[in-house]
């Protein structure tokens, strides 16, 4: 309800701006001046005057799409009054209500009809087609499905680096945009300015002043265990708008009420080993020892591209070693069959050793500050991104938990011990003020140590357990951050984001992503049919029209 109220206020403000700025223009077209203030009807009049489809008016008030269509309608209105020069069009685009007011109150209309020059009409018809193609694509992108690329190996071998996915935004109900004024097709920033090497200084693709609350429609189901889910990264420190935070894709391994634990790199939920879906290829980091150097290119050719993060030779024992970022049980078994293989050691963190990282200190020359032994000196400022959540537990990625995932309706008793676990949930995710004064907790100014959770939370992890920035670092994922689930892989290219040999992985294209099945069905024939229909529609129309005329 809050979303509808605030969005209605936003629409009313825009309507008032249009009414004030174009009051006399509407009178000159033969309408009442007050009609310029009426939402929807004001743009309906413009479309009526220029003989364009009246239903286009609905586009004017859609989030993301609205600013584009409003600009188009303003240009239509200015054209009605002869404002067609390049300078006048630019003023209409970048200073819409100011220039509309200037034209309305201080300038006589140049002409009261559209120009009839054929060449100019053809040019404007072409530009109009391009504009509405952009609008249509924006509607699909913003309201139905959105393309994502996999740039990191956190979900290998389930989702590969270089997979390009389409994500269904209606999987768990559609989350309405929270920043309605934004450039289409861009996530958070327009480009990397490189200014101060700080992404916070990059130009944003959205207007942060116009904010709308969280609102979801059509929520017929919620994420469940083993779903592959796309969500906005809760640890994003650059963007305050939830829907503009970086998109991540992980597997939902636990939901509200579950107790999660990692024992020696293996996941347990509610005390039971995780139940793997057919498409879940969990992997772990291993050091492989061999008696001879491995032919890496041959290894990639016979198996697949396997990132190696460290390699070398131990001259004392005459063995070579290779640390693989992540190997599935099947890949490890195949490597053990190589004639050079000696042994494999899984890379595991020490039990009870907390994984905590601090930011380094810098010298005046900008380099790292080092002590007498040449070691980097660290500050006391905690690097939250690379520190295990919560930061007061002796946990690491291999020995983690037990941790209970909160759910809507849970009553939390806040203590100093569990404050790192729940502080962000209470303050950031659910918008409360939490204070500790005189040995007592205060929530929104009221002394209490009890808090009732307002939404469901999830725990997301990558299948590549030893190479994944996941909920073990950034903590619970609230339902407000859920985007949707991958539908299918439409393109897969090796070597785009990694150092592997460059090739197109044809066997992965147009396959459903989130089925839970190992052998997924390919839907390339549907894609081919859609492309043929899209590009061949005009040909078939002309063909049948020609036959009809002959008859």
Structure description:
The protein is 28% helix and 22% strand. It has 11 helices and 26 strands. The strands form 7 sheets. Strands 1, 2, 5, 6, 22, 23, 24, 25 and 26 form a 9-stranded antiparallel β-sheet that branches. A 4-stranded antiparallel β-sheet has the order 9-8-7-16, with no helix packed on it. Strands 11-12-10-13 form a 4-stranded antiparallel β-sheet. A hairpin with a 4-residue loop joins strand 11 and strand 12. It is found in: Membrane. This is Signal peptidase I. Its EC number is 3.4.21.89.
Helix content: 25-40%
Shape designation: globular
Major beta-sheet overview:
9 strands, antiparallel
C-alpha-based Rg, rounded: 29 Å
> Gap between N and C termini, in Å?
59 Å
Which stretches of 5+ consecutive residues score pLDDT under 50? 111-118
- Return the average pLDDT rounded to an integer: 87
Could you tell me the number of beta strands? 26
Tally of DSSP helical segments: 11
Indicate the proportion of strand residues: 15-25%
The structural class is alpha+beta
Describe the SSE topology.
Blueprint: H1 2-28, H2 41-49, H3 65-80, H4 86-94, H5 96-106, H6 118-143, E1 145-149, E2 163-168, E3 174-175, E4 216-217, E5 228-232, E6 247-255, E7 259-263, E8 266-269, E9 272-273, E10 284-290, H7 296-302, E11 308-314, E12 319-327, H8 329-336, E13 341-346, E14 358-360, E15 378-382, E16 400-404, E17 411-413, H9 419-429, E18 434-437, E19 440-443, E20 446-447, E21 450-452, E22 457-461, H10 471-474, E23 477-478, E24 482-494, E25 503-504, E26 511-512, H11 524-550
Antiparallel strand pairs: 1-2, 2-24, 3-4, 5-6, 5-24, 6-22, 7-8, 7-16, 8-9, 10-12, 10-13, 11-12, 14-15, 17-21, 18-19, 19-20, 22-23, 24-25, 24-26
